[in-house]
Protein 1
Amino acid sequence: MGKRSRQRQKNQSTGRDSRDNGWGNGYADIVKENKLFESYYKELGLVPEGEFEQFMDAMREPLPATIRITGYKSHAKEILHCLKEKYFKDIQELEIDGQKIEAPQALSWYPDEQAWHTNMSRKIIRKSPLLEKFHQFLVSETESGNISRQEAVSMLPPLLLKIEPHHKILDMCAAPGSKTAQLIEMLHADMDVPFPEGFVIANDVDNKRCYLLVHQAKRLNSPCIMVVNHDASCIPTLHINSGGKRDVLFYDRILCDVPCSGDGTLRKNIDVWKKWTTSNSLHLHGLQLRIAVRGVEQLAVGGRMVYSTCSLNPIEDEAVIAALLEKSEGALELADSSADLPGLKWMPGVSSWKLMTKEGMWYSDWSEVPSSRQTQIRPTMFPPTDSEKLASMHLERCMRILPHHQNTGGFFVAVLVKKAPMPWNKRFPKVKLGGEAEEEEAFKGASLAQETAAKQDGVCGPPPLKKMKLFGYKEDPFVFLTEDDPVFTTIQSFYDLSPDFPKLNVLTRTHEGKKRHLYMVSKELRNMLLNNSERMKVINTGVKVWSRNSDGEEFGCAFRLAQEGIYTLQPYIRSRIITVSVEDIKVLLTQENPFLSKLQDHAHAQAKKLGMGSIVLKYIPNPSNPAEPQCSIQLCGWRGKTSIRAFVPRNERFHYLRMLGVEVFKDKQGQKPSDGEKEGKEGEEAEVQKPILGLLKYVNVVHARSPCV
């Protein structure tokens, strides 16, 4: 028996794992056992009777890889069709080492088949050229923002928020940003509206993680997202100008996905097996409650807040919700979400639980806790003792997701609806001092209410007032252009912008010197920026719409269009537009600087009428020809003296080519196709020119027999 075989056998007998975790990283020699974890959850009885072994077995298995098709993109249906018809169909008939490969499955509870999961490991993917192409497709589409890699249970909170395009949304602990991306997609449900009324404020306390958040959000090219950097437990109250008056901003929807011990993530975060202890939850409970309290304070009456953790521990879950409901005195209620996601299997929240220290001591009630432990263990960690009050909370409306029920991670989620202002806001109405002083006094009053109440009954109210500290990099300023800024003179005439173009929503990142890039935000985010510049640390906002191009000045405009913002900007552009066909786009995306004569007659005639400079290349779908993409495609381009080119990033090129029935893949270095493959491809291959797609060393474009539309 070889060394590897002996090691594999040893791993299986000891519960060690040396396999790849889906498409993620491989882990070696980690013992998937924690006696304290098992005894704790056995004693609590959170897993249905007779299922505990299944629960533990599922926890030891690698987590399936899950993908979500970006729902707001008009291309979502095209991608789904391409996945199902091109890749999933082929995978169903695939065998590797005599074993049939299980094709990806749609998540039954996610709307419109927009989310899929698969158990394929990286090792399996490496063994098949077909799976390698599928993997490349996923990577490329992820980079261009059309697909997101996201754990299945992580998709739940945004769905339960029931987002509409006019909602003002706060994501309190947003990094790394997969849920934030979902929120943005839901705002842009109608792609014909470039500026939805709503917006997303995505916050994270960690300055470095905020840049992960920016990366995620930028893939979606939305003018309605702002990334800020604050401690969520004392995130500042923001102001907006409403009808000439200065009002406090209340959010319609808040996502409160708090930091947690993460014991629901054992399947992907293998380190948790050796690090897990009950102390983790005891240390985090106070912070989780402070963040949740700050969230409901900023929630509008009638609004919804989703509280979620990837922990199964009641100290982090129902205990926080119960404390929040008790302190709210009827201002909050748990919503019944049982019918919102048909197909999802979940367990109701619990209304009784105990607490255990890392030494194994159990406490069922605050009265049992010795004084020496009372700084670490707090009254809010226990269920309410008043049975009537406990029953009125309806903690069974909380949702617990167990890993063995639908092959997911563990998760907890609760939906709260605000019925009235929080009681401490009522008790301490604003003193008429005007401006900042008015709010400061009101907030001090609320903090005083919390301190007094906390001393009396141990229930946390609003967070104490803290001075805002700014850490991390000093960001460039956000400077809005005035309506008469000279930059607009040439832009207006060159692109013939419509009269309703919102000039005031255009900003740049410098006070002095030449403006390099111009960005656009929605008018609501402009309102936010102008009224809160001193109170919040903004990391990023706006979508790039124009970039300075010194060559352009001689042709009439120093700014060329940016692909990131073309879908936002194009509705306002009335000239410099060339309507193109499917064949034109194929030429533009696979050739560098093709001559104008390479375009079909209709596009060629339009191009000849335009002078040199930046252009929009627009494909309009033809409903009578279903073999072609049935969604609009808009590309930035440049009309040269005798040629034309598309200014589109690499992965977006791949995306559009696939939509047009062209398969783009990267050959493995040195690997030649088999004779059978050569025969099947003869006459169909066309090499993509390296100057355009230079980041891939070996690229083939194979025209598919039927377009993936």
Protein 2
Amino acid sequence: MSASLEVQPLSGVAVITLKNPPVNALAVSLLHDLERVLREAQAHRAVRGIVIKGDRGKFSGGFDITAIRAAQSAQGGKGVIDGSSLLTAAVEQSSKPIVAAIEGLALGGGLELAMSCHARLSAPGAMLGLPELNLGVIPGFGGTQRLPRLIGLQTAIKMILSSKPIRAEMAQPLGLVDRIVPRAELLTEATELALELAASGQWKRTLARTDKIEPAEQAQMIVGFARAQTQKKAPAGVEHPLLCLDAILEGAVNGGEAGLRKEAEVFERVLTSDTAKSLVHVFFAQRATAKVGGVSDRGLKPRAMRRVAVVGGGLMGSGIATSCIQAGIEVLMKEINPKFLEAGIARVRANLFSKVKKGRMTPNAFEATMKRLKGTLDYSRFKHVDMVIEAAVEAIPLKQKIFKELCDACSPTCILATNTSTINIDLVSKLIPDARDRVCGLHYFSPAHVMPLLEIVRTEATSPQVLLDSLAFAKRTKKVPVVVGNCTGFAVNRVFFPYGQTAMMLLDMGVDPYAIDKAIGPGKGFGMPMGPLRLNDLVGMATTAHVGKQFVENFPERSYANGIVPSMVEAKRLGETTKMGFYKYGKGRKAEPDPEGIAPFLQASKAAARLPAVSSLSPQGIQEAIFFPVVNESARVLAEGVVERAADLDIATVLSMGFPAHKGGIIKWADTVGARRIVDGLEAWQARVPAQHKGFFEPCALLKQAAARGIAIADAGAVSQLSTKSKM
């Protein structure tokens, strides 16, 4: 990790190369090194101009996020370098012109470095952006001040608030890039430009520019409009986008220096916020899921999954097939008759063609991708596949029959995976005891070609090689894998089974159904994509009833069954598919409350349940009633070692159920609330319900332990798993 300096003797240009693979992240030590070599170049008598570039075809992916995490852990958030002052003093105020030669990417601090230079050249296709808001912070190296001065206030605000990068071809007409040149000529062109600027004796310092930024009165109007729009969209408690606008406005009205001071003030404030800590946690959690003890640390090498067979062409099977062929994997889809096979292939075609319609795939790429999909009605070609993913209906005898047939038809090294969402994997492989080491679960979430999470379900017999192969397969198909244990519901569905059941209990206590969804859903609610009742309508009442039955049978002591969903199924009020459920649906799937339509079902269930009435419950009260049991089940999952670490459960709940990323995932959020408060809340609800339902709210041992010791649930889970492993 370094910033190297090479002075070209003939031209008199100093070339500084940022070196920190893989993306030349601006680690604190690299920034100090950059400052050192810049001073050397400026002091060197033979140097007339300077070019800054990144090593191995990448300018810089931004500031090192590990330094942000370290600063968040330090007292008062201290420890992040004052990059803004460094770039202003060492780069922008340089006595010699500096040109940024951008390749690959210039993101976050990388783009802020480039903007502090006096000119910017880019190779074609480079990505430029300021994604800091995705981490709960704001651009802290001068980005809130320099970007508006280069491309105008309105465009800069849109770019910063969206956190989306743009290509160099779009950046150049905006003014963010001065010129686009072929990659092979980039360094030569940058060198020549540096010499031209040196010869002219005049170069523009970005912070002093006023030609693109709007006058103060107009700036206030632009920022005011952006603030109003942001307030409408921002989840409750998320303030960093609004504070970012404060910094932008300060600079627009009172000048760049004042803006930099405001930016530094805001950055320091948001750095240690719960939102920033949660989003940084999610960032690292997502990148750690492939590290699995006893699997990724054994020195094994993953085998390539070049050919995959999918058994079943329904919604899940076709989605899985779509995901595979998009990743360049050949897929063989098996169905039981020509009609079903034709329908399955048509679903894959429709999945892909939606990308064409949105401009995300060319017609030629569409046809080339579809050629990777073949159909079959038998197993004759299965001997050539590397992996089979069974996606048949959730019936144990059928799955057992399929796996027996697969064992006979496939090679002895072929991975046999099931996409079941609830069935014990050992039951699926019951008839093939000699092949259990190559059996696992690959639980996709619907729609499989869109949802990013893939639960890889391991049994006691699943070999490390099969798990490693599955992790590599997930990465190739652009999924985030989480290895989970073999239990009812695995990880996500298991920890979330109380989510819907608590909602039903609240209905039986007389709580307004639409108040529940409002408290849990987006906007000013908890922040889930939708409330539990709206989710029931989306998933379908029949599916809800089927899955709910599995949990009631497996966890009877802590499950709640009521009559609302079964009675709606009986009445053919199945949700979106019948345009009636807890809501009624018109054109465009728009959900409208239907209090009169659901009143008979609620009244009948309430009368049968005989639970104590709850006259009123605040939104926070609803949120705690819904999520504290989810935390409780999550703690059980940690104690049982179903997941490798608490962070795996966090990222799984974010990527599957849409748990708000700014809350960090279910365990991270729970630790923000505190185990003591959660235990007290569960026990308070326990006291309100009859004896037969007290088990639903009974705090588990690990949660009680965390509360008693005053430690984080994540830490209690880590201790519990360490203790379990030491006894094995």
Protein 3
Amino acid sequence: GSSGFEERRRLSEQKLYSYTEEPEFALNRDYFEEDFRSHELPDEQRAYVMRLLDALEVTDRDKRLKVARAILYLAQGAFDECDTEVDVLHWSRHNVFLLYDMGIFTALLELLSMEMDNSQACSSAVRKPAISLADSTELRVLLSIMYLMVETIRVQTEDDRPEWISAREAFKNELGSPLYNGEPFALLLFTMVTKFCSMNAPHFPMKKVLLLLWKTILFTLGAASPPASAMELIEQQQQQKREHKITLENLDTYNERDPFKNDDARDEEEDPEDTDSGIEGEVDPLDRDVIIQPPPPPPPLRPPTERVNFPKGLPWAPKVREKDIEHFLETSRNKFIGFTLGNDTETLVGLPRPIHESVKTLKQHKYVSIAEVQIKREEDNVTDHVFTFSAEMLYLGMLPNLSQYVIALLKLLLAAAPTSKAKTDSINILADVLPEEMPITVLQSMKLGIDVNRHKEIIVKAISALLLLLLKHFKLNHIYQFEIVSQHLVFANCIPLILKFFNQNIMSYISAKNSICVLDFPHCVVHEMPELTAESLEAGDNNQFCWRNLFSCINLLRILNKLTKWKHSRTMMLVVFKSAPILKRALKVKQAMMQLYVLKLLKIQTKYLGRQWRKSNMKTMSAIYQKVRHRLNDDWAYGNDIDARPWDFQAEECALRESIEKFNSRRYDKNKNGDFTPVDNCLQSVLGQRVELPEDFHYSYEMWLEREVFSQPIQWEGLLQNP
């Protein structure tokens, strides 16, 4: 409904602005009114926007900024004319579609490119001992308008006009196509991220860049909803009329109505590793209950009429892979007939009747994933794979610098994580939140403290959502595109980084109150501002959860699942980094989706944790059994035979890399015989070659130089060492 839409829009706009930026709302309004009064124009919106568009092209930077502020005021809903928050959002939407129609986005894009290449701003920012909000004013105004345009046009509503629907389609195609310097718009933003992380542009407002990047990819590629299996699982279990039902808010199975509620506090399982958790401070005893316990048998004296009927079986069908059937038959043939038949899954000669039954059951539950089909087609050299246009354009653009992008995003994630300690050499992500004048009163310090924490939380949210979107869409486009991004993430230490993120008091992170409601947009522009007090700042909002942080945690868990699924050596990394106690503590958050992804991560490593761990964690084992889909012949709970299986991280990753390289060279290598082409080592001859460049290259060569040459660290001393 429209009220739900308005709430989403409000929340979406809130996170764009820091509380430190609050005085700028009035500034935008003042510039708009000054400009509007100074030009006697007919009361015609289009003519006025057209005049603003022309004024954006003036050479005077200050004048340009004033015009950009007037445009931002329109995109913010011309709030001075509005009485309610709903009015502000209504006019913001109306104005944004008008701005898009008049070609404002393209003009902003040119200005953004100019600002990015503004070497004077970059070098002065690099030299400054302390950077503040003032150093990124132009960039923040441009990025804010662009964010409002992307996010407003992206979201559909029931009362969209026909011309708005066609504008949405056109804008989506525009953003996903290589229209901007021969690359999709997202690549420009990725370049800003790497330039910032290479310390060449410390004034770039990273939060806004990341939010815009996330929303651009969300718009062009589509949403990353939880996979059907997870949603089905939750819905099916809600439908089952059991007493221990699962809900999205609370997965605390045994509620007051449960006839078998176990009140015995001594039954708490203790994790031997939990005691030296490395978490600061002790755990709240109220916080200690682990989610699910298996129902104890009903007391024998209970009359049968009162017994609760639990449905038989589990709420979803197990899956089986072709590999599992092959493995089962190989073991059976070795045992009963003494030799194997390779990949043959049809011949059952010489095998006893029960084995025939088992194979039949396995085949009934066989599931072939898209990934398996794609891998098989690559092995068979099939070239007619259908790619999704937007995802393919993005992959093509990202491929040459993929490792830089991944490393930069993880650097930012690390800097924004609450577990990070401020180090002098770490990246400064607070350039677009710190005021010019540092706080002098306790109240100002409290306000800035909340602002900084909120700023970091929003960065974590944007990066976690962005990485998950990339993994999901590249996996749909082609499994090897997903695998190369995954491998770059793994090599850049993403697995220990996410575990480090969870090695904090997750309950307090998820119930953090880093917001000041009266300063949130659009509330702050339509209501009288009450006087802020220390008490009102401490109170925070009324929400039980900080949904932003819950969303980030679920995203990070899903990323971890995607990186480790079916990868033995990466699963062993979870074991080696002692993730089990960290993940177990995350189960204290009573939210079904989050618990599901935690349980999945525990399930894949259970067989490597040893008998003692399983014995002292029976409730967790039971929870996995109840909530996570099973593989028919995966002895995840008690399989000790694989414990001794060696794991060679390098060999596994190298084999995977070989397949990825083959895929990339077949699909994207213009020089097909790259391996065998002799190298021309003569400097004169190389410099004398004619290189085919795109027609518009001279427009963007400075950006290309920045990204390909200046941002790349070069180890010159390496030339002096003997090979």
Protein 4
Amino acid sequence: MKSLVRSYTRSFNAFAANLTDREQKKLASHDDVVSVFASTTFQRQTTRSWDFMGFHQNVRRNPAVESNIIVGVIDDGIWPESESFSDRGIGPVPKKWKGACNGGEDFTCNNKIIGARWYTPLDASVKDGSGHGTICASIAAGNYVENASFYGIAQGTARGGVPAARIAAYKACGAFGCESVNLLSAFNDAIADGVDIISLSLGGGILDIKDDVVAIGALHAMQKGILTVNAGGNSGHGSGRKSRTASVAPWLFSVAASTTDRRIVTKVALGNGATIIGKGVNSFKPDSKKFTLIHGENATSSTCTEKEAKSCEDGCLNSRLVKGKILICEDAHRQREAMDAGAYGIIEMADDEFSSVTALPASDLSPENIREIQDYAKNTKMAVANILTSESTKQSDAPIVARFSSRGPNLLIPEIMKPDVTAPGVEILAAYSPKESPSNYHFDHRSVKYTIVSGTSMSCPHVAGAAAYVKSMHPNWSPSAIKSALMTTAIPMASAKGKHTEFSYGAGHINPVKAANPGLVYETIEEEYVKLLCYKGYSTPTIRKLFGNKRSNCSRLKHHKWSPKDLNYPAMASLVRRNESFTVIFSRTVTNVGGAISTYRANISAPSGLKVIVQPQELSLKKWNEKKSFIVKVGGKVAIRVLSASLEWIDGNHNVRSPIVIYTKSPNKS
């Protein structure tokens, strides 16, 4: 077996190799080695969404600079023929670009997609088979495409956050996920190629930073002035540790997913004139006639139990009884079974929070609505129905954080609030690979240019696009300044819109227009990250190798009253003991990026049980880039899981808001 798999030298020094346990231990003991860890596999985690955020097509832009912005998308490739990646109206490749178009078979770059590389050995090109990379790239930086839709559903102008920006695609993911070795290669090249923003819609488990290729790659990107935006994860429906976001490093911009004011529904029209509203993206046009309804328990073979029959489990359906009818199943994800049995359509019981593309006429209904249909069917001699083509409806209470969106707190660094923000990630129209089934069922042979999808994989590129927009307005801003601008201008969300409060939506829902003029920013310098990791127990040699800085010295911190809560982060968080009095002091410094002469006054919002004091309560700024420091003293006693407060610095033109989260450990939980 070949020992050396790959080496990384363009942006950092590392290699991947096949090692025995003995070789791994020997290598790990070497003074020049930061860490040796097993390769892990990470998983991949537009017409209305930008308008919903107030980021309209006529928003003020800086066209020349935006055209110079390069968004690196690390994913499973890209479909270059998509209209979203047309270079119509886009000039020559930026002179700063140092990358290449190594797209492989049947792949051509243009002035939109200017770079392409792939690292998956079983693939012959950067072309995206699953559609995931194409979706993400089009949301972040897709060109304008009028009348885009999924068979007329969600029709409008599709566009990314920075339509004039360039895209560099790095294919690090294959059919079975995204291997660490490939992700490191992608980061290595993206940094050296000169991208400005990295969009990374993937994640895995919670890992120590020195063993986490995403954290390591993003750290090296940060050192080169590149912000990495990362999907927070789709495991929020779980419990305990499994529901927590793995995107925890403070230099990562971690993104949750929430709804927009457009929801897609599929109605079921019953023969008695009643109409029931369900979920699903059903593109199939209804027949003029209605179809007989049949419940799974009345369409079963004799080999299945009653429960199995009601659920329409595999092998339980008698195709002779089902063919040409609408099947009712008391379970979800039974479209394959319905199709195999020859059903016209299917009504499934599913408590879904979002609509997914269906492979045949289908609607997902709540248990209550399923019972309504069952009652109709039992009490009607010829019970019939039809499943209507999906339509868009207005949701007035948006945004709401999706239940699937992974949440905090940060299990690795409790003082750093995660996720950072939320953005549209539910029922998003985006460009797609025509090679892949839009419903992901093998028997669905439709080929589409655009599809409708949900996940933090979709919210992540919204933030990447917004970050690229802010970068285009302020080309010299650091990654932490861009991140701060998007966090402190985010729209606050009420606790009712996310039961886990800031641990579900972070600082709030992004507002790209306001982020371009935040007034003040919290800049985090590299030295603070060094302090953080020293505090967390990393040794000086490890820190020096990780950061590539021989001057770093953890021993100097022994005489400093510094802790992770003092990291100059736009949010403040602290873990305290339940029902015990506490006092926590946060130190922060802001930089003036608003008016040359301005005075900001502190405005505190705090619940009963928390006392928040800011010193000083007024910041007088006389020039651009002037820095002012302050402390926030929080005291009280917490009897519940989370208490949330906020600090706003207000000068009459800007509201610079930071959430303050005091929380306790859940009893008997992670």
